[in-house]
Amino acid sequence: MKSMTGYGEASQNVSGAKVTVQIRSLNHRHLDLQLRVPREYLSFEEMIRKAVREKIARGRIDLFINRYGTKPQGKKLEINDGLVGQYIASLKQLKRKYRLAGELGLSSLTQVPELFHIREVEADHVGERDAVLKALGSALTKLERSREREGRQLRVDMESQISHVKQVAHELESWAEAVVGAQKDATVQAQNGAIRERDPNETASPVGKGDINEEIVRLKAHVAELAKVTREHEPVGKKIDFMLQEVNRELNTISSKVPNLPVIQLVLRGKERVEKIREQTQNIE
Fold first, then answer.
1. In this structure, are 81 and 133 located in the same domain?
2. Which contiguous run of DSSP H or E holds residue 34?
3. What's the whole-model pTM score?
C-alpha cells in the first residue's frame, strides 16, 4: 500500500550539460501528470510520460526537468557564398566601367559584415535522451520509496481503525444472538397463549424488526477482507473505498432491523471508525 504523496529528485551529467529531474506527487482521484521540460526535450516528451505512467497509477504528478550547460556553447562562422559572389562580380564590373586602379583582395571582403554570420552550435539534445530517462528513473525510484514509507504509516493507523470495527462486529454478533433468543422466547409464549400487553414502563427486550445474523456474517467478511487488502502492494485506494461502502451498508441495515439503543450506539461507533478509514483512503494510491 502506497501513499499518493511523495518526492524524488535525481541528476545526470552528459557532455556539456547537467540534467536534473524533480518529481512530486499529491492526492488526486485519477492520474494527472503535469510536465514541465525544456523545449529541447519536447521530441521525446511522450517517452517521459510513458515512464511515469508505468510507475504511478493515481495522483497529481508535478514533474520538472531542467538542463544546465556546463561549458560554453560552440560557435560557427558561416559565409554567405551567394552574396560574396555578387559582391566580387559587382566590384569587378565597377573597376572595368570606371577604369579604377587597385587590386581586389580579402581586405575588401572583410570590410563587409553582411558576408559573414556567426551562429551558436546547438547541442545534440536528442543524444541527451538517455541521460534524461536515466535521471527520471532514479527520481521515480526515490518517489516510490517516499510513497511506500508514508503508506506504511497510513497502514498502521488504518489497521488500528479496522480492529475497532472488528470489535464492533463482535459485540453486534452477541446482540444478534440475544435477538434470536428473544424471538424464540416470544414464539414459545405465543404458542402457549402467554402473550400479554406490554407495560409502557417495562424495559425493552432486544427483539427488533428481524434477524441480523446474515448482516453480521457479511460485515465480518467485509472487515476481514479490508484488513487483507491493506497488505497488498498494488494500488488499493479505490478498492478500499468500495469496501467501506459495503461495511456502511451492513451497519445501516443492522440499525434499521434492530433499532435498540445499544445496537444503534454500536453502529455509530463502527461508522465513526469507517469514516476515519475513509479519510485515510483519500491519500492512498
1. no
2. strand 31-36
3. 0.66
